[in-house]
């Protein structure tokens, strides 16, 4: 009998998949974590041209093409007022690989990683795969992560904490003051802050700032991706940036598990990052309109929720049996406890779906809510 590793036996296939599989074929899917918009045409064309010219046939440098890393550096100057050396960037297979590199390079066996609960499912799983110990912490009433909660959870065994703003699954966004606090905590306690900013551009209220901007001691690494911003989830292109010595350690992992990010995707990403940004604004406007329609629907249903300020998720409190009732009636939503124990009593509803479908789903959710009240 094959003996599986202890690490892999500690993780299971995400609960979100199970919900999808339980739903009928005609179900309206409000469970998806990807934008329903096309990848911008100029990004697609850049990949096609690179393939036709034979430029994307071989390995690139382990860190990614110089041109892509320069485009990422220019993006950080433009959007974050950050001076990023292209040498301090690794292009990765999505934000997922970047998270994996950060944990693999910084967590020793048994060391603790603090992350939001409810939070993105990979934080727990990737911590376990790095042989670390997950330390999920509860959120404020508005579903943001309180820097004080993080600071209190730090022990001598803490290797890192994860900040995610705007957040999956809550749609919550951290204030600039919180982001500054996270940088201070990382510096003062000498623990790593991993800031997951894949939803950076999908914000409706407030200003997105990065803890990396406020970091003074080199204890912050930033993760981002083209996946959500440019509707490029299938391309698998993200990146990590941070202090040179940390990038060098993460490169050791990346070199052996990935060699380099997919070359055609690197060409597409370079074009997406440096070309016209109109598609991003149009997508955000559409998401905001859908969010407002959804929140009006929750009001009519009598559901309470913190107003989501970004990403494309809402997380209302729902009565017992609500998720199952909604699913039975043909709308897929994800139970909050799929994202951690403190998600219990909530549901994650993605509005990365067309407005007409969303309106149909709201009617069905409304009927389901009445039926179980
Ligand atoms: N971080 C968060 C918060 C996410 O929601 C996701 C994807 O859903 C990722 C990272 C990973 O994104 P990618 O598709 O770029 O690997």
UniProtKB/TrEMBL annotation:
Ranges of residues in domain Aminotransferase class I/classII large: 26-361
Cofactor requirement: pyridoxal 5'-phosphate
GO biological process per UniProt: amino acid metabolic process
InterPro entries (alphabetical): Aminotransferase_I/II_large (IPR004839), AspAT/PAT-like (IPR050596), PyrdxlP-dep_Trfase (IPR015424), PyrdxlP-dep_Trfase_major (IPR015421), PyrdxlP-dep_Trfase_small (IPR015422)
Gene3D superfamilies linked: Aspartate Aminotransferase, domain 1 (3.90.1150.10), Type I PLP-dependent aspartate aminotransferase-like (Major domain) (3.40.640.10)
A Pfam entry, by short name: Aminotran_1_2
Top-level taxon of origin: Archaea
Entry keywords, A to Z: Aminotransferase, Pyridoxal phosphate, Transferase
GO MF, one example: transaminase activity
Family that this chain belongs to: Belongs to the class-I pyridoxal-phosphate-dependent aminotransferase family.
Subunit structure of this chain's protein: Homodimer.
PANTHER family hit by this protein: ASPARTATE AMINOTRANSFERASE, ASPARTATE AMINOTRANSFERASE-RELATED
Protein name per UniProt: Pyridoxal phosphate-dependent aminotransferase
